[in-house]
Amino acid sequence: MLIAFDSTQQALRAEMLLEYADIDIDIRPTPKEITAGCALSIEFPGEDVEQVQAIIRSEQVEIRGIYLKQEEGYVTIDE
User: Fold this and answer.
1) What is the pTM of this model?
2) How much is the pLDDT for 79?
3) Separation between Cα atoms, residue 49 and residue 53, nearest integer Å
4) Is residue 77 within 8 Å of residue 50, measured between CB atoms?
5) What is the DSSP code string of 12-64?
6) 49-58 and 8-20 helices cross at what angle (nearest 10)?
């Protein structure tokens, strides 16, 4: 799964929060299929989605969305 952001500041903040929560993440370029204001995205395992959503909400991290990669491209999941 992937989180896209509108600002680098929010991406770096989310990286710190998710690493602190011991979630396995990777910083990667935002795929061109996803329109976002920031070139950085965070990839994480799907089984951690509920914990990631809870952290994003409780810490009020501003995100473009959380996306799931499927054969036809990326689809947004409800937050």
Assistant:
1) 0.91
2) 59
3) 6
4) no
5) HHHHHHHHHTT---EEEEPPTTS--S-SEEEE--GGGHHHHHHHHHHTT---S
6) 120
Select from 19, 3, 8 the least CA-distant residue to 68. 3
For residue 65, what are its two tokens? 């969305």
What are the residue ranges in the chain where pLDDT is below 70? 78-79
Least Cα distance to 38 among 16, 64, 73 occurs for 64
What is the amino acid identity at position 62? E
Q: Which residues pair with 67 in a beta bridge?
A: 2, 76
- Residue 56 tokens read as 């994003």
pLDDT of residue 1: 96
> Which three-class secondary structure state does DSSP give residue 3?
strand
